[in-house]
Give the backbone structure.
Amino acid sequence: MTNIALHQWSNSPQEPGQRGLEWGKTKEPGQLKVLLAEDNPMDVKLVSILLFQQDLKLQLAQNGREAIEKIKENYFDIVLMDIEMPVMNGYEATSVIRDQLKSNVPIIAMTANSRNSEKEKCLKLGMNNYITKPIDEPVLFSMMYELIFGHINSKNEEPAERSERPIPGKVYDLDYLLTAVRGNKKVVHDIINIFLEETPGELVELQAAIEKADPQVTRGITHKLRSSFSLLGIHILIPILEEMELLSNYATPFGKMEQLIRSVNIIFDKVKTEMESDKIILA
Amino acid sequence: MKLILLIDDNVDILENLSEYLRLEGYHILTADNEKKGIVQASEFLPELVICAMPWRNIDVHTDFTLLINAMTGLGIPFILSSTESEVISRSKALQLGAEGYIIKPFELDNMLQIIKTSMRTGNKKQKCSV
């Protein structure tokens, strides 16, 4: 499934200016076309919901190669581009879009890394802006509208003050997600289901990559896991994954990696147990 | 041999305590901040973690809470050390799920006693929950 027909819901009444955003006279939100290049199904789900809430039309690409094909065939007002993707990553795709397709479509990079070097690299390659995951909704939309309409409306909302404080004794925390989807428990429930379905397989792949001492695959999966874990507020795994991502740059210490992934598995099992008992509340 | 991870930003305490505990026959790992502590604990899965509690308002110490949650997630018992009054640290430590707590500065003998008790009860608790 590559097309998400969000407009099918667009008949539902849209309160004008409900986000404090004033639309350009020429374009209604329902006419804006967004391309999302993203391989993590949890992020796809979340961004789809956020865009749907803004009444935007979305097409999906699962990697950079697909994004290029879509851009060749369709007009988009903006592209949201994940950096780490299989087949072709966001950097390569951007280079092709700018240098070969000669397209000026605004591109916002999305990544789990907040390193300055990565931000610079994105801008240097011709991306227009950069946002870190988990996505802060008001920040994303001000960026998008600024790039599309050339200005931010003064009525724009300030980025929400989000508490990133972990709660003692909780191995995961849905505060961010619930805020992002405005308390829509069904969506949170769906995202948790995707997480519980996808993660065990990814951990097995990661284990295999570590055993084969494959830095490329290791980095790819740890990066993807980092974005999934931070979306669900599993903050305790972030320092461990950061360490693994760092270690994957070196050839030798894969023994240490094997020990770290054992702990990632232990914590994931714990999270899973807690989520499964909490899921009843969310359903 | 039992492995213990010590986390404290005071390097003198880390050195003295590790030297003493090594003489008592424990293997010792140290970390001078909570994030390093999480990575160390994940890598070596020690039998016990001894960690300094931040002074006063614990709620703003994100990394400390993160560490406590990581210990909970990994099922590693922990002892908290504190410079605050016994009444305050006892209630905080218990609330956070610590096996034991100790007021700084402490007698090494007292620490050893708490370590032994915590390892016993902590491990028993782990076995029960599995």
About this structure: Confidence is low (pLDDT under 50) at residues 1-25 of chain A. The longest helix of chain A spans residues 254-282. The radius of gyration of chain A is 19 Å.
